Amino acid sequence: MAHIQLVKQTSSGLLLPATPESCDFLHQIKIGEWIHADFKRVRNYAFHKRFFKLLQLGFDYWTPVGGAITPRERKLVSGFVDYLCESVGREHTPALSEAAEQYLNTVATRRTRDTALLKSFEA
């Protein structure tokens, strides 16, 4: 499959060869012969370079955040503490909330015990 470069130079929509290799290829084709082509535009190199520099800058300033405990898990434990308080007939006390937080911190520590947080541009 030949790769040729064409450029539109006239208002009528006529495509002309942009390189000598493209011109040689087109001279080999007979007049009236049908050819099939997939057309692509060439990327704007300056914009492409700027875009990837911007990605690199964002990566340099980005710090992974998050946690070992998802908001859904935190809500589940909080809802369970509320359920226990309702079934016993007592008010929700700060001590119960603190116990739930300690449990969640223990689970988070257990989950991240052997995990190293690495930031890689290749990933």
How does the SSE layout of this entry go?
Layout: E1 6-8, E2 15-17, H1 20-28, H2 45-61, H3 71-88, H4 94-111
Antiparallel strand pairs: 1-2
InterPro entries: DUF1367
Protein name: Bacteriophage protein
Pfam families: DUF1367 (PF07105)
Provide an overview of this structure.
This is Bacteriophage protein. Pfam families: DUF1367. Strand 1 (6-8) and strand 2 (15-17) form a beta hairpin. 0% of the residues are buried. The chain has helices at 20-28, 45-61, 71-88, 94-111; strands at residues 6-8, 15-17. Among the domains are: 1-45, no CATH class; 71-111. Helix 3 packs antiparallel against helix 4. The model has no long low-confidence stretch (mean pLDDT 86). It has 4 helices and 2 strands. With 123 residues, it is mostly helical. It is 50% helix and 5% strand. Strands 1-2 form a two-stranded antiparallel ribbon. The longest helix has 18 residues, at 71-88. It starts with 5 loop residues before the first strand and ends in a 12-residue tail after the last helix.
- Class inferred from helices and paired strands: mainly alpha
Approximately how much beta-strand content do the residues carry? under 5%
Gap between N and C termini: 34 Å
Percent of residues in helices? 40-55%
Number of helices: 4
Structure summary, number of beta strands = 2
Query: Residue ranges: pLDDT <50 for 5 or more in a row?
Result: none
Rg? 32 Å
**Shape label:** rod-shaped
Mean pLDDT: 86
Q: How do the SSEs run, as a string of H and E? A: EEHHHH
Query: Strand arrangement, largest sheet?
Result: 1-2
| Main sheet attributes: strand count, strand direction, barrel closure | 2 strands, antiparallel
Protein name: Bacteriophage protein
InterPro entries: DUF1367
Pfam families: DUF1367
Organism: Shigella flexneri 2a str. 301
